Amino acid sequence: MRVKNRTKMPLVYLHGVVPVLVLALLASFPSAASADTCVGNCGTAGVDGVVPLSPTGNSSYQWVSTNLGLSGVGILPTGALGEETNGSTLASSLFSATAGDALSFYFNYTSSDGEEFADYAWAGLFNSSHTLQALLFTARTTQSGNAVPGFGVPLPVATLTPSTVVINAGQTTWSPLGSSSGTCFIAVGQGCGSTGWVLSDYTIPTAGDYYLQVGVVNWSDEAFDSGLALDGVSIGGVPIGPPTPPTTTPEPASLAMLACGLLGIGAFRRRSARQ
After folding, report:
1. pTM of the model as a whole
2. Are 170 and 258 within one domain?
């Protein structure tokens, strides 16, 4: 059985500004309208261990990792499967598309875990109201069979090239995995490895404003991390943006605590002013 270790402001001004600050903070989560947004652990990298540059020719790519991820983040947008623990998500900036536009990008899934602890990754297309429009791809740690699409998850709708991928066993040296880089649960052949770059293509059926979000999550525990590299996101052949470091968004609990603190300050100042 496997064991894993784990300047002071005028009172009247403060009275008016606190609710505004609270609303602004709460409205900022989730945010995908102005810039790439990370919740958890994301970044950019060049050639790094087993993950080379993508076929786009770009000099870097973006990534998300379960290493240093947040509890409850990275879960499939179609619904939790039941044993997800911690992870990360990355959302692109908002883009406009017309019906028939092609959304394309490359991804590369790397996992140091094993089948018994089947971490997974996904990509989804969302509209400006944060409603999932399409689950584009899935990838999942597996000892045998296909890592892409992932097993035990809803079928993705994008066209993948190659259409199925068996993980390249033992290929886990990648710095976004932190201390899990270069490791494998139990041994090579148990599910650890990397998929290599896979192309995802999807035709937008309806004109509108959208964003792309990817996520990765640990399964059953928080050891032996997994990550996803992403590059070349384009709509109608036009890049959405270069692979730049995303803006990290605090988790909802942190925002709520800060908002409550601001409200508490406002209430204290108002009571003090009446005394």
Report:
1. 0.78
2. no
| CA distance linking residue 159 with residue 147, whole number of Å | 16
Q: What angle do CA 230, 234, 239 make, to 5 degrees?
A: 100
DSSP helix/strand/coil, 24? helix
Tokens representing residue 142 in the block? 């597996």
- Cα atoms in the Cβ-side hemisphere of radius 13 Å centred on 244: 10
Q: Tell me the pLDDT tens digit for each residue of 155-194.
A: 999 999 999 999 999 999 999 999 999 999 988 989 999 9
CATH code of the domain containing 50: 2.60.120
Domain residues for the domain of 209 are 38-249
111 Cβ contact partners less than 8 Å away, ≥ 6 residues apart: 119, 141, 147, 167, 172, 191, 192, 193, 194, 224, 225, 226, 227
Go through the chain and tell me how many residues it has: 275
